[in-house]
TrEMBL record:
The chain crosses the membrane at residues 47-70, 82-106, 118-142, 162-185. It comes from Paenibacillus agaridevorans. Keywords: Membrane, Transmembrane, Transmembrane helix. The keyword Transmembrane applies. This is DUF3592 domain-containing protein.
Length: 296
């Protein structure tokens, strides 16, 4: 299983390099969308098993701090079990598995939708959804196990021990976060799919023009460790010179220099897409540290 995970990671890194630099004439930062040649427009269905598995792992991991530390256990015996060193050790192991599964869900989301914004929402939903679910289950189980137990939020300030109410507030915070993420996800998926549909259509039906990178401006910002640029690309349509502005995200070692050849895809709807000419290639900046993020 470890070999499979390492193979997937290497495959993801290779695909990551091949698709950079990434250009967008409409979006910037995490909303920039890619569609590698030969890949279909993304679907959410293949991601559901990864999302649910990661959420379950986070729920199992979260049962220990919620049950033993925050007092959200239906009985003292269950609280002792959840606080036992063996249980804590298992929870720590599950935490690493949950992190790995969340990272896999993130990378699979990028493969499907070509967008870090959508991938980030899927990863966030797996974490917050799992923690909110276990908090809700434990809270409901605890309150129904002792119907006479009062539930008073003032206990957060007055109790000399960590009260159940504090765990409820923490769980509610994760639930609110998960709900906001879930509400944002459909619109983000629809946006990514629209961009991918445009790219797919332009490759099949659009006018392909040879473009030249004529301006490269560093925005002094990064998405993770990937520098962001604004660029201008000159191309010719029906004998008339034109220029298109775009955002560019790439790695520090794959920054094309001015004069590099690009492909400009356009149609009569005014939709434009810019991508690297894989056959002609490009000349990249030799100083790989020039656009690397500073440690400070």
């Amino acid at each position: 299983m470890r070999d499979t995970a390492e193979g997937q990671q290497k495959h993801g890194q290779q695909e990551h390099i091949e698709t950079l630099p990434l250009f967008s004439t409409t979006d910037k930062n995490g909303r920039m969308t890619m569609l590698p040649p030969g890949r279909r427009v993304g679907r959410a269905a293949p991601l559901m098993p990864w999302l649910l598995t990661a959420a379950v792992l986070w729920a199992l991991t979260g049962s220990v701090p919620f049950g033993a530390l925050l007092g959200m256990a239906p009985t003292p015996a269950i609280s002792m079990v959840l606080g036992h060193p063996v249980t804590v050790g298992v929870a720590v192991l599950l935490l690493f598995v949950a992190i790995s599964m969340t990272a896999t869900a993130y990378s699979r989301s990028i493969e499907q939708f070509g967008q870090t914004r959508v991938a980030g929402l899927f990863a966030t939903l797996s974490v917050t959804g799992g923690l909110a679910a276990v908090a809700g289950i434990l809270l409901f189980w605890t309150l129904t196990s002792d119907l006479s137990r009062p539930f008073d939020l003032e206990a957060i300030a007055t109790s000399q021990t960590i009260p159940l109410e504090l765990g409820a507030v923490v769980g509610a915070s994760f639930a609110l976060w998960a709900a906001i993420t879930l509400l944002r996800l459909p619109g983000s998926i629809a946006h990514a799919r629209r961009r991918q549909v445009d790219i797919e259509r332009l490759r099949k039906e659009g006018l392909s023009c040879i473009g030249t990178l004529t301006a490269l401006n560093f925005t002094n910002s990064w998405l993770f460790n990937l520098p962001i640029f604004t660029v201008e690309v000159h191309y010719i349509v029906d004998g008339a010179p034109r220029v298109v502005s775009a955002y560019m995200r790439t790695s520090a070692d794959r920054v094309p220099v001015v004069g590099s050849i690009l492909i400009v895809l356009t149609d009569d709807r005014g939709t434009t897409h810019v991508e690297l000419d894989q056959e002609s290639g490009a000349t990249f900046e030799t100083d790989v540290g020039k656009y690397a993020p500073s440690d400070g």
